[in-house]
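Below is how a single chain appears once it has passed through the pipeline. First comes the sequence as given, then the structure the pipeline wrote out for it. We keep one example in the README because the format questions we get most often are answered faster by looking than by reading.
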Amino acid sequence: FLPYPQITVFPALPSGLTTIEEYGDWALEMMMHEYTHILNMYPAHSFYRPLNWIFGNLIRPNAVLPSWYLEGLAVDFESRFTSHGRLRSSLSSASMRALTLSDRWDNETIAHINESGLSSWPKGARPYLFGGWWWSGAIQNTSIESVYTLNQNFSRRLPFFINGPIRGALKSSPSEFFDNLKTELSFNAQAQIDQIRASQAHAPLEQRVNLEGEITAFDIHPKGDLLAVCSNINGQSRLVFARRQEGTWNFDNAENGLKVANPTRVSWLDDTRVVFDQFSRTAPYTEYRDLFVYDFKLKRRIQLTNGARAFDPVASSNSDAIIFAQHDNGGTKLSRYHLATGKITTLVRSGLLRKISSPIVHSSGQIDFLARDTKGRARIYSLLPNKRGKAHRRPIEGFTDISSLRNAPGGWLITDATHGIRNAYYVRNDEALAVTNTETEVADAQWDPVQKKVLFTELTADGYKLNSLIRKQFHPPKIQKTSLPKAERLSANTEIGPAESYFPLGYMWPRYWIPFVFQVDSGFIFQGLTSGSDPIGRNEYSLSASYDTVTEDFSYGINYTNRSTPLFTDLFYSKAQSYLGASGLENESQSAGLMESSHWPFNHRYIKWQLGGAWYETTTSIVRKRIGPTAGIHMGFPNWQFALSHTEYLREQDYLDYGRTRAALGGSFNVARRQKIAIQTRASLAPQMPLSSVVALGERNLGGQYLINLADSDFLLRGYPSGTFVGRKALNANLEYVIAGPEIAKGFDTFPMFLRQLDFALFADTMAVDGAAYVASDEGYYTSQLS
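Resulting structure:
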């Protein structure tokens, strides 16, 4: 809704087994979800109307409704008005059973389900999962019209006070209703568990592979002696390897700890190498999945593709190629990567909004894969050797929701949720026999050729874990999927229209401004801020103005960025008041400039250079002017950053001439579990700066309040007032050691505060300047040497 109601869609079909992968008409479900957000958040009535006239689109009281309310309503509507949606997902009911089996329902309070950053399962899905259940129950207990009534009520009330309208609609508070709903959901889940157990459920995780974290992908070597597993611990995915020793998988001596970015699949290429897909976060403005090979003997990772949008890779029968799926424009395709040449060949295209996934390769060269259509039917297709685009369907009677496909002796292993529970099935001659009967859900299954077992990932209240069973036939019951009252079914127009140009300036006029109040040394800053851009971000600007009670003067600035050419252009002008807290000195600075920036020639999102020029005027008791060119490079990698820049001020009449070089290096890394060290160093060198100008123009330290300060600086030295040290040469270092304390994970009903985690930090700062240091007792600056 800010700065205007807008939905940005990336046409990449979901990959990985999540609740959003069990879709029907994906485009319709996604747009239904996002459009619900706009309708939910946009109303503003009563006393908000005059505030809208003053502050613009910023005033949207419903936008601060809890996440479980906003996301839960969108999940309900995407399900209620389509044939699928997350509430109908088999994973949704499996999650209910997992919570019931582990007796975890009482852990989830109305405050708890609002959080997406908790480390415990279901992690980021919490507001969607529990919020969807809450809204489904609320509408069932009232009517669909109650959604409109509640939405309008909240749009004219003080924010965060949500209990009154909900109590009026449901005759109970949100938390009371949620507590009753948990009892009902737990009762229904227990009934399903009893039904499964009556059909002789397999023993839950009796033979679990002992590996920490949630298992997201795995693959057994064809010989059966090696296992590759992708494990996610606290949001970090790692690829680990194990050898079979005395009938068990030994991860202790494995080459483990390879950090990876959320692979969908891992597959053995030969005895020492695996192929997998992961996010390749190097392109400047995109994030694609690409193919990688890792040699765990040489401990070497090699990126095979660049921008391929690849997922679900598997090695060919003779290991000379990799078969994989690719995201296409609004669809997918099956492709082959030739290891010798690096060439990618398209084998089959899915068509619009249809998804190809989970390919497998037979020794004959035949390729089988899954394809999901716009009605939510996922089936097996086969592509004969040397055939392109002519795959034929392999129908299995009664199985249309397959999500995993693997080779097995004489047939396939699949996982399917057609009957309401995702189980593993052995398919031979188009006959499917259940080889698991889970109480929750089986995501993926593979044949263990050594122990003659089925190895599979199974949902628990701690995420997916790896389990194994001797192959035998089970008879899972049919479980009724979550049902919703019949509502008007919508259909989407999936025709692709012509690409059209648009005029960006119509989007650019200011639509809001945000007021801020900050406390600083000896006073306050009152600030107003607005910004705007066109929908695809080619043009962007920001405007700010402020008044502070310390200097009792105004500051303002404007910045405009144009990204319509390979070289990005930045124009800026600002007038700012500065105050050195130590000495009480004030000055006024004006600056203007033009900067060109680009990721060329590296075309790397973490490396960017700038080239331009700037003009500065600083006024204390005298006016000091500077003008000149500037150049710099910035490397902002995920765990560390480096920046280097130089400005050469030119000799002109009434202008100072000297050069200034700045450098910064910083990073953070884990030293032990739940312990982290962060360090940064900064340097600024301007040896030709006149010593008489050091206090006005030199680098100065910032004290404890470093987020908003009237002393403009990046040199942090806590414990000293801002401006105690100023210099033409300055060196600065900061060290922090952080120990993650206990996860509190406690909220206070619907009160908008949540205590998540307690961390402990030790820090040390140091700084040296060639310039001056303020001595408070003498009320003056004294010369300071860099040593």
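The longest strand covers residues 751-775.

See the next section for the split statistics.
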